[in-house]
Amino acid sequence: MLSGSTKHAAPAKVQKKPLKPSIWKWEALSREGVKKRGEMEGMDAKSVESKLKSIGFTPQKIQKKSKSIRLSIPGFSGISNKDLLIFTKQLSTMIDAGLPLVQGLDMLASQIGNTRLRTVVTQVKEKIESGSSFSEALKDHPKVFDTLFVQLCAAGEVGGILDTILERLAAYKEKAAKLARRVRGAMAYPAVVLVIAIAVVIVLLWKVTPVFAKMFLDFGSELPGPTQFVVDLSEWMQRNILYVLGVMIVVVIGFMLFSSWPKGKMFLDGLILKIPVFKQLVTKVAVARFSRTLGTLISAGVPILNALDVTANTAGNKVIEKAIVDVRNEISEGKSIAGPLSNRKVFPSMVVQMIGVGEATGALDQMLTKIADFYDDEVDVAVGGLTALIEPLMMVVVGGIVGGFLIAMYLPVFSLVSAVQ
Fold it and tell me: Can you tell me the distance from the alpha carbon of 7 to that of 231, in angstroms, rounded to the nearest whole number?
């Protein structure tokens, strides 16, 4: 017999993966007997039930939400500016009416049609219930609520004027969206005409010219110079159409990558500011955006340095953004706004002088709002002038391409008619 007992090795413990919480759809009655619906994150139905009971709801139905496949695009939240604007206005009205913030968010979450925004609002509400402030809860969703939104809400919470701040924020977003629509409208026309012109050239050279070339070959006579050039270009296009399309795709992708690279974006933005027609429009848009953003932040009580940080991020042009950052750094050393701003030569002297007057009188936010209103109208004038200039220019370009092609194709016909006569 062996002395002593044989010890068996204990089997290794298999570590279980922690369970992930699921999204549950629920229906419940509030304390007032009003039927509520919503979504909530939880480990199981019982945990969701206990959460509902803890906020005074009587659960009626709890069901696990089926998973749906979503294509996630970086930087894209799936929530439009219009959805966010409506949410901001409604929340401002509810808080102004004396409704508690959590209750207001809960009511909005049950009414919002956009599922992604509804989920975000529900998560914000739950974080507030766990002890966070409204602005802290908004920071968890940077794709939906930008720095401007968070900073203004933080200032509104500190000052106890969240309803007023949300109202100003809604007005700011409405005017900013209107400004963006004007600029997009001005840029859309030349872009569409340019794409159509390129498509027309490709179709003419690829499909139409070979028909004429075959007819000219049957004539047996020497072709005029312009016609021969178009025919040779068409034959080259026939042989290299795939390469042409490939190069166009590479150029578009390369331009997108270059414009997303910080140095490339800085170069392109600087180039735009050197083109006389576009410089005027871009400068006016930048002044309107800068004044509106900075005025809204200062009137809400946001410190000037923080306000300039946010304003720089919303400039829309890297050259102007750098100028605002440089101004901010000089202000942090004790200087005023007007002095450093005039040294940058980015904004018109009239704007700098008005900002200086606003600083001297202690009404900088009001002066910035007046500047923004004035330059909103100036943007309208600039867009109208740009459109009036570009429309005939685009017509001349497209007409020149089509007219040149027709002349080149019919020159041999005219020569043949003259020879017959």
Answer: 94
